User: Fold this.
Amino acid sequence: MKVKSLLIMGYGVNCEKEMALGYSMAGATPKFAHINAILQSKVRIFDYDIINFPGGFSFGDELGAAKALANKVTFSKLKNGRTLREELVGFVHHGGYIFGVCNGFQLLVRLGLLPNLSGEQEVSLAYNSSGKFEDRWVLHKINPLSPCVFTKGLDTIYLPVRHGEGRFCAKNSGVLKQIISENLVALQYCDPEGNPTMSYPQNPNGSLESIGGICDRTGRIFGMMAHPEAFLLFYNHPLWTRMIKSKIDTPNIIEGGGLTIFKNVVKNAQGDKK
Assistant:
């Protein structure tokens, strides 16, 4: 039985088709649903294996990136009397996976689902230190000790960021230390040698400890600012012509680095079905 992946749309989310392609290439069956269809109980998240919150600009980021959407998810009641946030917590408890990219990552932290040390919001993604929208490719170092199932087997990954609010910050130093000590940091912005860095533009937003993505303790909820769905094919790479000319990475000439993230979660979800 194929893994089923649900991509939640609406109110300015605009990267769902690229993400769906990633899941198709990874062997899963992607389906789309407007957030209102879920809130009206026309779509059940428990009918799926992976729930996704793609990138975009939900509600135009008018109240801060994903804040309005987070309020909708937190307070709107389904027909069963539960909120979608409560349903998402139960979904992971029963073995599901949740993935948030860019605006989706912003949503997950504002819901308190990441890093979920106490069940309340403990971290945020604030305005970029550069004071402007950042649209650039950046290198990430993967934390091999992280429980994150999405990043297993990766060392570094080169992906594009496209955001105005991506600066990772924590409620206090204690929360930050706990996230680091429990290896919930899944990946960090790094320099060409693979060393996490605070230098701009390698660190595009000024994130504390160079944090570009985190997971929860189960490793089943993952959020990141960069867009893996934008690097599904080798030819998405901004320097692919030079790389072919210099014969760098040509053995893996079809797949892009971002596809590995989708393959990892699909493989894990498929294993759960056996």
